[in-house]
Design brief:
The protein has six helices and seven strands, in the order αβββαβαββααβα. The protein has helices at residues 12-15, 39-53, 78-88, 119-122, 126-133, 152-164; strands at 19-24, 30-31, 34-35, 57-61, 93-95, 109-112, 138-142. It has one domain (10-164): 3-Layer(aba) Sandwich (Rossmann fold), CATH 3.40.50. By secondary structure, the chain is α/β, with parallel strands linked by helices.
């Protein structure tokens, strides 16, 4: 039995009030701390709009560049969150912790810091995926450019959500 669904398979009532973990491909080119091309952000808008119109709360996970598993302002998703907010004409709550620890995550649209700032991301660490799974009810993988990778925020999170039930 396949437990995968497409967003179109969901009725808005099934998503309303639920917290969706959305793995998006927001790996945009940066130049001097500015987004050089926002086409990947624009490509994420239909999925974000669908979820938000359904009344879901969205927690965004993404990577940016290839940092060496340690925080660096050069690879921070904060400018990405700001630009996404402009495109949506809405506030995107940026959380500087890639796991969201110690944060209330109170907004209906939250972006966690770069998943690749965590050493367990590339290694598909089960404990990392389980930490993210605790934050939501459903997982949507909209990161086509990273979907083939067995990382904690893609394959690991899908498995952790399945195990969670």
């Amino acid at each position: 039995m396949c437990d995968k669904k497409r967003l179109e398979d969901f009725d808005h009532r099934e998503l309303s009030g639920r917290t969706i973990l959305l793995r998006a491909d927001l790996n945009v080119p940066m130049q001097d701390g500015e987004i050089a091309d926002d086409h990947r952000l624009v490509a994420s808008l239909p999925t974000l709009s669908f979820l938000r119109e359904a009344g879901a709360r969205v927690i965004l996970l993404s990577h940016l560049g290839r940092p060496d598993a340690s925080p660096s302002s050069m690879y921070s998703l904060e400018p990405v969150a700001e630009r996404l907010g402009e495109l949506l004409s809405s506030n995107v709550e940026f959380v500087a912790d890639p796991i969201g620890r110690g944060q209330p995550l109170s907004s209906d649209l939250v972006m966690l810091e770069n998943t690749r700032f965590l050493s367990g991301e590339l290694d598909n660490a089960p404990d990392l995926a389980e930490s993210w799974a605790e934050l939501g009810n459903l997982f949507v993988n909209d990161a086509f450019g990273a979907a083939h990778r067995a990382h904690a925020s893609t394959a690991g999170l899908a498995s952790a959500m399945r195990a969670k039930g």
